[in-house]
């Protein structure tokens, strides 16, 4: 068993696609219209196009807003992405205007940082020494 797909709720799929591709560096995998305004919109890492997909899911369900608001208020990331070097990725993303809520922090063999994805979520970056 393995994870094929996971999702993050986003306020605006077009804005999210721009951020997740142009800023974070993912590539679009699927973009299928669903109804009048929504899409089945997934991204993947460019080096693993057949790997786990991230669904940029519309945040329409009434439970989403209070859930995400509570996580953000408490500083809890909704997802974690692995990178080779958190400090280097932190510097690169800061140059793109990304707002971090936690600067790189070493916790034993793991370094983490947390940023705002501009779509309603906090995302954690992690790397191991």
Identify the notable features of this structure and list them briefly.
alpha/beta, 4-stranded mixed sheet, 3 helices, 24% helix
Q: Main sheet, how many strands, which sense, barrel?
A: 4 strands, mixed
Number of strands: 8
Q: What is the helix fraction of residues, given as a range? A: 10-25%
Radius of gyration: 15 Å
Question: Low-confidence segments, ≥5 residues, pLDDT <50?
Answer: none
Which secondary-structure class do the elements indicate? Answer: alpha/beta
The largest beta-sheet arranges its strands as 1-4-3-2
How does the overall form come out from the CA principal axes?
globular
Number of helices: 3
Strand proportion: 35-45%
Task: Write the H/E string, N to C.
Answer: EHEEEHEHEEE
Separation of the first and last Cα atoms: 28 Å
Mean pLDDT: 97
